[in-house]
Amino acid sequence: MVRRTKEEAQETRNQILEAAEKAFYKRGIARTTLADIAELAGVTRGAIYWHFDNKAELVEALLDSLQEPLDALARASESEDEPDPLGCMRKLLVQLMHRMASDPKTRRINEILHHKCEFTDEMCEIRAQRQNATIDCHERITRSLSNAVKRGQLPADTDPQRAALAMFAYIDGLIRRWLLLPDSFDLLGDAERWIDAGLDMLRLSPSLRN
Fold first, then answer.
1. Which tens digits make up the pLDDT trace of 132-189?
2. To the nearest 5 percent, what fractions of the chain are helix, strand and coil?
3. A GO term (biological process) for this protein (predicted)?
């Protein structure tokens, strides 16, 4: 009975997340209420509060569902014991582009994040989450690039902090552009070329050196 109850609770949580994804995608985060999500999920508002304290937690849970499958690869490129940190980063980013272009759920959630997440006053908690996530991402990229420098995969005088910022901006801009104008370039077919262009920037740009 206890196991069944846990399964039912997980099923309800999944229903809420699916409904939130649909509502946020259609109306934007700021214009969507928990009542809207409850109605779409076929549950009470109390059921939502059982699983999530507020809308910000819902958004965070949606984003976590995208990050988990690639997390092990991200950790590998951060490890000082990884012999090919730049290769791991390349593989991770190519996978990211492939998922973005071929998986509807990944695309919808990223479109919510990039184009339907309004940082109004009531959304300050979500803004803080995004700031913290960006800082964490920057630190992880910096560790990966520092490992690449130690392994001789990047010039010895590379500035890992500056290079991490440049790479983050490049990938983020590429994704934003494709989500806004998906027919303007082939993200799926040219994923490796786009990622290699970013890595070439790290290897060759004098402006990223100390």
1. 888 988 999 999 999 999 999 999 999 999 999 999 999 999 999 999 999 999 999 9
2. 80, 0, 20
3. negative regulation of DNA-templated transcription
Name the CATH superfamily housing domain 1-53: Homeodomain-like (1.10.10.60)
CA distance 4 to 120: 40
Provide the CATH number for the domain formed by 55-208 in this structure. 1.10.357.10
In the chain, domain spans: 1-53, 55-208
Single out the residue of 178, 147, 180 nearest to residue 163, CA to CA: 147
